[in-house]
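Researcher: Next entry in the queue.
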Amino acid sequence: MGFHGTGWFAYIRHDEEQDRPAITWELMLRVWEFARPYQLRVIGLLFTILLISGISLISPLLFRDLIDNAIPNEDRTRLGWLAVGMVGIPLLNGAIGVWQRHLNSQIGEGVIYDLRRGLYAHMQRMSLRFFTQTRTGELMSRLNNDVVGAQRAISDTLVTIISNIVMLVATLAIMLTMEWRLTLLGIAILPLFVIPARRIGRILRDLRRQSMEHNAEMNATMNETLNVSGALLVKLFGREQREYERFSQDGASVRDIGIRSAVIGRWFFMMLGVVSAVGTAVVFWVGGLLVLRGEFTIGTIVAFGTYLSQLYGPLMSITNAPVEFAQSMVSFERVFEVLDMPVEITERPSAKALPRVHGRIEFQHISFAYEGLAGDEKIGLDEIARFTWGGSAAHLKRGKEKSSESTAGNGQSAVTQWALRDVNFTIEPGQLAALVGPSGAGKTTTTYMIPRLYDPTEGRVLIDGQAIIDVTLNSLADNIGMVTQETYLFYDTIRANLLYARPDAGETAMISAAKTANIHDFIAGLPDGYDTVVGERGYRLSGGERQRIAIARVVLKDPRILVLDEATSSLDSLSEALIQEALQRVMEGRTSLVIAHRLSTILAADLILVMENGRLVEQGTHDTLLSQDGLYATLYETQFRHVEDT
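Model: Structure for this entry, 646 residues:
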């Protein structure tokens, strides 16, 4: 399914009917796919429902026999057995209920496990573009709140509906055999309450979706401001009060919806109580008249009243079951929204493993465009989930301008912003290529094309003459090492962070990599050495230390192609010198593409690629480009020449 032009963002616009989930066979079959692995347990669960429902119907008959036979006839033996039955039935029901709960929890927790695994695996396959447009807190909400809600739909809502249906059919059958006139009288008043009850159910369902959305927003706020980078930014700008107020506003929305849901739910149960009271009163009144006329025994009307109280709850629930079930399906729909998001970076069925490469890199007519909504409106995961990434490329290929706009059906504009246009170059094996250009020229986007963090809108990237779109992603990653400007370390030990590149590496290889990156002596001087925990995102270490660990991680991986952002301007001179020395050793014998910030790197480059506004405007050696007196010459005079190179 693809949406091009206005359709790409028109998919965002859904009316109220789209927000109201419909129970379709397609949805039900898809839900069943998650329950299928537990079908034997489901059968066992259904069996327990039948047992509990059947046993629950015996108690009123015991009361009838007590009143009509045991007491009037002074039958002590019968009285004793009835007493045993009155105790035994709850005990038996309780034991079966424990078994039912065990089966139910196995199904529910199993579904949670499978849904979370499926969601996490799918999110892991999403391209970098997805993560740049999605807040982490919203993803966490889908993995936690929505998955739990989906589990309740199976383990609670479905079980309740089935139990009510069984109880309703069985109770009606017994009541009709006892006195069909009173049975019809008891249920005759129910239609007066059906329409209001269904209306309340729809309101509760809509509130459920709103509550999930507000919870996702609150989770996103917490994730943004309570991680170390967000907390640092808040403190540096003194915005604690602002973030507190923003969180309070999100929390207030969750609170208000919770209160409204509770009050409306209470109205629903009050209505149920009124139905039960009115129906029971009418039945006892008419039944009492029948007793006075000798057409009914006292025990029968007592049993009948008990059955009636057992009838109204399931009957009211069944009348509102479609709405309640649709409400519970909201969680499944939100999970499926993410699972249905197309994976932009995929392997072709015919993809082959890329062997260890020599390192020749070719860019052939590469163009790449970002697409997003114009204006200041925030785009949440609900809207992101409706994007069709794969369909955008064909639409973008028709564009020729640097940026273009098309109006979506909801009045918003879909903006196409070209980051790269018709970029062509070749880097030979073992060469060092330096990417230079002003900010926003497309340098980082160019480097992201090589490991397929992005796929080009037009053109293709080749390694050793093989189009990277035709090779497996893991084999491509094995041949490429990348050190980004922002170094990320897991909240774990230095050892674990280094071995992330090659889990099977031995101690000797790890230490050798650390020495190559000029970080071994520092690590060895720590109290816990390589077992030192680096803290959240590695913030217990300095910027230079984090970057050298990142370099050591790449060295341990031992790739043939190295891609790095030589961003050392924020480091002290000692750290910068250590990193530069490490990089020189790392790049030796490898094909390297470097976003260069230092004159020494540029002068050492075999090929200099000069980017401007997404285009490769110049390429060549330092002397050749200077003689052309173009953009590179300008950059050299304004940026590089006067930089003190140590």
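Model: Residues 240-292 form the longest helix (53 residues).
Researcher: Noted, moving on.
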